DNA sequence: TAATTTTTTTGACCTAAGTCAATTCTTTTT
DNA sequence: AAAAAGAATTGACTTAGGTCAAAAAAATTA
């Protein structure tokens, strides 16, 4: 993919329209990055200054503790920016990011972004919007994790998917084991919970396909 | 407290210096708010457009579920902004905020802030910085909650306090029951955990005073 | 398509932390 | 200082979900 095309997609998606001046300003501070499934964009704690915009593919953002246990923070889908806190913390990545599918991304050098922010207030506003959305998402994760049990967390998750797709039949976007960890559980507990929902007639399931039977 | 003084404190703390032009721009979009202990700034889900900067006092940000169970997101200390996602989501507050002590705050009308952001890029940069810090804080909360047990979460918490105060003797800033909930536990479990840390010779405790004996 | 690897499911067992109730200790109010 | 209210602790019991191991199913690769 050519850089200018990537920048245009970014402009369109992130700013809601092409701004030729902004596109040309971005030429010098961006690069197109491709990663194959399993490859890593950056590792938690690593120094860096690049913020990314995912054009195609799927990415897992996670943290690991000393014993290698994972805490999955988010699955990045195409059209999203990630590592956006590097705009401020020109410093260390707070999480690790791995490609779950082959990916194309636009990397943006945050060291040179201050000029962009000051010249293009629309860019600043959109960035503030993106950061706010991420905060809202994280607050919601925290609330779910502390106030709800696993089946409720899962049902909240698929209800959101169902609303987005306007259908009560959804396909899990990642493998069950990873979804379990996103929801703060083990694959074993997740599997048992799914079985219970099936037995109780709340969902139908075939592989990653889930049909919501009752809206609780 | 006079509004202009509050604005000056905000400017100094948030922007790292007084900017007379910005101060006068803020005159028309701000107000000084005082709340007594126990009073509420805003309730989760409530419509509003005010972002707050806490000048003095202490605030609890939390969510409640249907059964009245609390998930505490953060304790706001003086010098911090809160409800900062309202800059974008001119919309609904994501959490409830209650004064744990008598408070003075500066409220900023986010509807009229876009002009400020576009004219003062330093303001935009600082705001992006504050949002990024909040994201980092929340990611850390999530990681702790999913990867660590209660005693580890507590020790991480007081280690941070100890580093800030550069002392291994700290005073818990809130009552133990609230701290328990911030750490995703019940007051009972928290109390038992503290007893265990004391019995194991890891901390000394007298009321809210905690002394870290071993740095694990 | 067979072989290999990865993912998911199931079983048996365990444990951290929740629940509910009763005390004790502390703070606030009268 | 006494009374009342709120916070913290302790006890007894329960449970959601963790752990480890093995089997079954699905997806990759040869």
UniProtKB/TrEMBL annotation, chains A, B:
<dbReference type="InterPro" id="IPR012318">
    <property type="entry name" value="HTH_CRP"/>
</dbReference>
<dbReference type="GO" id="GO:0003677">
    <property type="term" value="F:DNA binding"/>
</dbReference>
<feature type="domain" description="Cyclic nucleotide-binding">
    <location>
        <begin position="13"/>
        <end position="134"/>
    </location>
</feature>
<dbReference type="GO" id="GO:0005829">
    <property type="term" value="C:cytosol"/>
</dbReference>
<dbReference type="GO" id="GO:0003700">
    <property type="term" value="F:DNA-binding transcription factor activity"/>
</dbReference>
<dbReference type="InterPro" id="IPR018490">
    <property type="entry name" value="cNMP-bd_dom_sf"/>
</dbReference>
<keyword id="KW-0805">Transcription regulation</keyword>
<keyword id="KW-0804">Transcription</keyword>
<dbReference type="Pfam" id="PF13545">
    <property type="entry name" value="HTH_Crp_2"/>
</dbReference>
<dbReference type="InterPro" id="IPR014710">
    <property type="entry name" value="RmlC-like_jellyroll"/>
</dbReference>
<dbReference type="InterPro" id="IPR050397">
    <property type="entry name" value="Env_Response_Regulators"/>
</dbReference>
<dbReference type="Pfam" id="PF00027">
    <property type="entry name" value="cNMP_binding"/>
</dbReference>
<keyword id="KW-0238">DNA-binding</keyword>
<dbReference type="InterPro" id="IPR036390">
    <property type="entry name" value="WH_DNA-bd_sf"/>
</dbReference>
<protein>
    <submittedName>
        <fullName>Crp/Fnr family transcriptional regulator</fullName>
    </submittedName>
</protein>
<dbReference type="InterPro" id="IPR000595">
    <property type="entry name" value="cNMP-bd_dom"/>
</dbReference>
<dbReference type="InterPro" id="IPR036388">
    <property type="entry name" value="WH-like_DNA-bd_sf"/>
</dbReference>
<feature type="domain" description="HTH crp-type">
    <location>
        <begin position="148"/>
        <end position="216"/>
    </location>
</feature>
